[in-house]
Write a structure and sequence with these properties.
The protein has one domain. 52% of the residues lie in helices and 12% in strands. Strands 1-2 form a two-stranded antiparallel sheet. A hairpin with a 4-residue loop joins β1 and β2.
């Protein structure tokens, strides 16, 4: 029988990339690009959906449509499984 040891460290299985993982770098770059995008698109724009016309910052309109698209994509990917 093998002994199950639980020492206070990782035993193998670690990726060995150190404290800065490639995934974290990608997320940080995307976050910075998102902030640049928001600060570059602050002017107001008119948006019409069927009848009402709303004036809002362009970044807010694009963020809203992006969130709606992400939610729809997540819904359909979950149903696919």
């Amino acid at each position: 029988m093998s002994r199950n040891t639980s020492a206070g460290g990782t035993q193998g299985g670690g990726s060995g990339t150190g404290p800065v993982a490639p995934g974290r770098v990608v997320v940080a770059v995307i976050a910075v690009l998102t902030l640049v995008f928001i600060f570059e698109n602050t002017r107001s724009t008119k948006i019409r959906l069927l009848i009402p016309e709303v004036t809002m910052p362009l970044w807010m309109a694009l963020l809203g449509t992006g969130l709606i698209g992400a939610l729809c994509g997540a819904y359909f990917m979950r149903r696919r499984r």
